[in-house]
């Protein structure tokens, strides 16, 4: 019997994370997803995406609170030993996040702490907590941002933390190489989702201006990222390691 695998996807209840879970499940991979506060939305995603061949199970997680990670890891282990028995944790996708729009010189210490905890410290320490569970030969993928390459107004603190994640991804790739675990960063461009209050999706002017600076003539959709992530996690991409990969349609070339 072929070994069955599972993935952990943070922020799988909506947007990019929901799409990533959808594509992984379509590939026959069980998914443990996380949500922050919206239990009803998480349950709806679980019902919508689960199939006869692969399932989504949602766990509550505050990515900003590292003190909960030991208990969360125990929950993941329980799922793997119980309902997902026979599935090894092969994939970790650090996707959950938010954005606080502010100029660098207007950011408060509390806002900086928020962006640091959610986009760098939390994912960093959660990955460390999960390392004993991940299968040798596994894949870790950190969702960052194309805004680490070019300027966007009021993105400084957010982009800085994503830049730190891209740097640590290189170190992770090097230091986990002995276990044949690859680590890459995927940097989406503008996505029409509810991220950032749905600004790109719902503000026609913002959407149009971003489409103008994208060679393919539109902003991205969550499925553009979900499909790309599933492809990068596939066995055919096992030699891609330590890379920052933009999935932007060519935004701001």
UniProtKB/TrEMBL annotation:
<dbReference type="Pfam" id="PF13561">
    <property type="entry name" value="adh_short_C2"/>
</dbReference>
<protein>
    <submittedName>
        <fullName>SDR family oxidoreductase</fullName>
    </submittedName>
</protein>
<comment type="similarity">
    <text>Belongs to the short-chain dehydrogenases/reductases (SDR) family.</text>
</comment>
<dbReference type="InterPro" id="IPR002347">
    <property type="entry name" value="SDR_fam"/>
</dbReference>
<dbReference type="InterPro" id="IPR050259">
    <property type="entry name" value="SDR"/>
</dbReference>
<dbReference type="InterPro" id="IPR036291">
    <property type="entry name" value="NAD(P)-bd_dom_sf"/>
</dbReference>
């Amino acid at each position: 019997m072929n070994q069955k695998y599972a993935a952990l996807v943070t922020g799988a209840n909506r947007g990019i994370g929901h799409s990533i879970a959808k594509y992984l499940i379509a590939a026959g991979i069980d998914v443990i997803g996380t949500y922050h506060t919206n239990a009803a939305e998480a349950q709806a995603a679980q019902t919508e995406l689960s199939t006869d061949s692969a399932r989504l199970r949602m766990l509550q997680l505050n990515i900003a609170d590292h003190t909960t990670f030991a208990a969360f890891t125990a929950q993941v282990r329980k799922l793997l030993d119980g309902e997902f028995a026979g599935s090894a944790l092969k994939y970790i996708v650090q996707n959950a996040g938010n954005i606080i729009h502010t100029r660098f010189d207007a950011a408060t210490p509390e806002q900086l702490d928020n962006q640091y905890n959610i986009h760098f410290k939390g994912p960093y320490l959660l990955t460390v907590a999960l390392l004993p569970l991940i299968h040798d030969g596994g894949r870790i993928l950190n969702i960052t941002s194309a805004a680490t390459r070019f300027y966007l107004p009021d993105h400084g603190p957010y982009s800085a933390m994503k830049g730190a994640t891209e740097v640590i991804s290189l170190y992770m790739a090097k230091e986990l190489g002995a276990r044949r675990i690859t680590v890459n960063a995927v940097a989406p461009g503008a996505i029409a989702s509810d991220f950032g209050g749905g600004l790109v999706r719902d503000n026609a002017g913002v959407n149009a201006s971003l489409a103008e600076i994208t060679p393919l003539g539109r902003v991205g959709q969550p499925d553009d990222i979900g499909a790309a992530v599933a492809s990068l996690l596939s066995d055919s991409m096992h030699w891609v390691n330590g890379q920052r990969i933009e999935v932007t349609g060519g935004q701001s070339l």
